Amino acid sequence: MARKPEELSRAEQIRARRHIEPVKRKPIERTPEESTERVARSASRVVSRRPISQVKPAQQATSSRGRRPVYISTGTPGKELRLPAVPRVSIGIRIFSGILALFFLIAVILMWKNDHFQVNPNGINIKGNFRVSNAEIASKLSSYGTRIIEVEPNKIEQVILRDFPDIKNARVGVSLPANLNVLVEERIPAIVWHVDATEEKEASQIWIDDQGYSFEVRGAASLPIEVHANIDPPPPFKPVRLEKPTAAEDANKEEEEEVIFTGYEPNVDPKLVDAIQVLNQIKPQGTQLRYDATRGLGWTDPNYGWMVYFGRSVEHLNIKMAQYQKIAELVLERNLQPSLISLEYLHAPYYR
To answer: pTM (2 decimals)?
Structure first.
């Protein structure tokens, strides 16, 4: 038996009304752009009832990102001419490296085959020399006819230093197409060493720089110190080995002889060079500085006419000068006329 409407609850009344009247929903207000976007999203949802194996992959649209449009102005405001798109070319690092390697390979082949890259006398530039002529230096270079890529600057520098003791430093560089650039630094002479003539040999002279390197005289030097001697300048002191070298040491010595030349060592005792420079400043004006193989350096006293020697070094020079004054006074008091006074040894001076 059906109940009366007054006996129904509110929820039951709503459900009963829904069965009788259709549900009317309030439409959602949207803009035209939102409606179009919603329709597009709905259309993109495609449901296929076919098996997965029958579905063909969609073809990807050709991207135009690799191309760029080109526009040409026509001269009329607001108008321009559009050309077909030009593709963007991108070179990778591997392609660039390959091109660079190919370029260097072609350059090396050209340097090897072309005579323009062959060193010749006209391509040798020598600078820094004043006494040694360009012809002398160029005559020692064995690079004529050598390809510029075969030149070894280090070996050329060693040849120059070996054959010219009066050259202190040498720098060699190359430049294209076939230029050889040589920069040298000559030694500055500080002492002119005169060797007196004997029955066995003629008089000679050599130059010595302030480091003890001797070399032949070339031209004229500016205000050097002159030393007159009866012998060549003494070499630096070197310890002498009394033990006989072993076979292994002899083999090592032979290997060392094949080592590349690096430069000369001073061939005049540096202490003697220092002594010459000091004594030249205190010797009487107008006298010659002389060297004796036995007594060392000295000069002729212009007041008394005898020779005075101070040895090969300037150690204790002030004391030796004071001793000389005392000895000269003693000789004069005794009315003696010695030929020489030697102060080579500080504790054993003598006159003769």
So the answer is: 0.63
